[in-house]
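[Q] Does anyone have a clean structure-token version of this?
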Amino acid sequence: MSSSLRRLYEDLRSISVTVVYPPGEDRDVVVQQLQRIGCRLRVVWPFPPEPPTGIDVIFFQVSQDLEGSSAWNASAVDAAFVALSDYESPTTLKLLLDTKAHGVITKPFRSSGILSTLVLARASQGFQQRLQGKIEKLESTIKSRRQIEKAIRVLVDYQRMTEAQAYEHMRERATGLRVTVAEVAAMLMETHEAMEKLGFNKS
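[A] Here you go.
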């Protein structure tokens, strides 16, 4: 076995998996295969109103229990979602899409497809988390730039500085205070807004 495959199996043996599915042969197929893989396994039934917390992967039944539920949504849960679908129909597909599942297994469940689905679901969740992190960082950068631009405008209007002087002033204050320029800009805007509320407007 190659080192990459060894790391993959070691990772799968370290994760916690919950199966949310009614008792029976179908659930047994899923549970037994996950046990063979070596995952730390937990079985839950009846269907809970919210996904279990502190879990790496959740295998769950696509059923009417999901209808109208905003809690069962992969984007709101820190776990990979694998849907277990009994059959395909427009209603089932709509429920499946609403969950934003990272993977899906349809009946008849077979042990041969569970490992690959588990691996792909974990990879998909990891990619989405990294993408979301980049989006949040970009949004934060845009917000900071807008805050800095507003603060520069205040200094230009009230302190008779040029834009270059205003930015350099905030940069120097940031260095002295050991904070970011964006944090200095936020302080300045908070002070400016407080002064305006108190009636200390530009003469």
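[Q] Thanks! Anything notable?
[A] The longest helix spans residues 114-159.
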